[in-house]
Amino acid sequence: MWKFIVPFGLCLALGAFLYVGLQRDPTYVPSPLIGKQAPEFTLPSLQDAAYSVSTKELLGQPWVLNVWGTWCGGCREEHNVLLAIAKQNAVPLIGLNWKDDNAAAQQWLAQLGNPYAVVAEDREGRVAIDWGVYGAPETFLVGPDGTVLYKHIAPMTMEAWTREFLPRIEAARGAAGSKS
Amino acid sequence: MIAMIRPLLLALALAWAGNALAIDTERAFEDPVLQQRYESINRELRCLVCQNQTIADSNATLAADLRREVREMIAAGKTDDEIREFMIERYGDFVLYRPRMTATNFLLWAAPVLLLLGGAFAVVRVVRRRAAETDTDPAGPEAGES
Does residue B96 sit in the same domain as residue B110? Predict the structure, then answer.
């Protein structure tokens, strides 16, 4: 009797693993940065090269980094969600304009609306490499102490924002508040 | 004679033609040793955009940027391990085409040995049982032999 039950059970278990594997996104690569210190950068602002955007100035509060480019279809897809998120005023939304044309990027913001508190221009893509970016749009949540709390790889959705980002932002604010 | 080696020559020429398809055509270094290191590291790093290609094979912008990083690090005198570490810190172990053994994938590395041991155990059990069966069968042809 066991001779049949055991192999059958093993086959079922293997099938279950393979079935779950089918549902997963093979292009998703988990970030090794989660829980680590966010890479620092100082880059010129997209709109005014005389002004620089620095991660140091953002310490002490949770903030969000959104990597985008005008060449990126998913970025257009998520743009309205970003505008809605910006309206909530929950955290500063920092843009990282990745390997883009300055004029095209400015035109994009003028036409579609600007959800960002400020946009850093990463013309050469070096900061994006430091952050392990491999496909725009990508969105990072950084804690008040400068650690990376979460990374969303895909166009942002309101569901992902409410489910993954907001609770973490609340928790980060709570932890930072109790320390001071 | 010529007619005989013609197909051979053609095969040789075609084999050589693969080089013309290389993505990264410009030499990065004058020094052949550095160039060799540059090429071999590139062939070991995964392009995260087109995941089944190395950064040496891919013409994605990210692959070009990563090749630039590798080139600059070699020029700055970094070792191969330091360059690999740089990539792992940013993109995780997945960036390596030759994976390292870590706590999470230990079972995968150990699997061949475990399966071999399990198989050996099963074989020994079956053989022992069969031997015992023949031993206790007085009518068997090998009766009394062992």
Answer: no
Q: Please name the residues in contact with A129: beta carbons below 8 A apart, sequence gap of 6 or more.
A: B65, B66, B69, B90
Q: What is the pTM of this model?
A: 0.79
The nearest alpha carbon in chain A to B48 belongs to A134
C-alpha to C-alpha distances, B56 to B16, B29, B40, B65, nearest whole angstrom: 18, 15, 9, 11
Domain that holds residue B77: 21-100
Q: For residue B62, what is the nearest residue in chain A, using CA coordinates?
A: A134
Which CATH number is B80's domain given?
Answer: 1.10.8.640
Residue B6's H or E segment, with its range, is helix B2-17
Same domain, B125 and B84: no
DSSP state of A38: P
HEC sequence for B71-125: HHHHHCCCCHHHHHHHHHHHHCHHHECCCCCCCCCHHHHHHHHHHHHHHHHHHHH
Does B120 lie in the same domain as B88? no
Spans in chain B with pLDDT lower than 50: 146
**Residues whose CB falls within 8 Å of the CB of residue A124, separated by 6 or more in sequence, listed in order:** A99, B65
* Residue B3 maps to a domain: no
Are B119 and B85 within one domain? no
User: Structural domain tally of chain B?
Assistant: 2
Cβ distance B51 to A125 less than 8 Å, yes or no, reads no
- Clarify whether residues B76 and B39 are in a common domain: yes
Contacts of B61 in chain A (CB under 8 A): 99, 125
A1 vs A169: which has the higher pLDDT: A169
Q: Which residue has the tokens 């309205």?
A: A80
CATH top-level class of A33-179: alpha beta
% of chain A with per-residue pLDDT over 90: 86
Report chain B residues whose CB lies below 8 A from the CB of A25: none
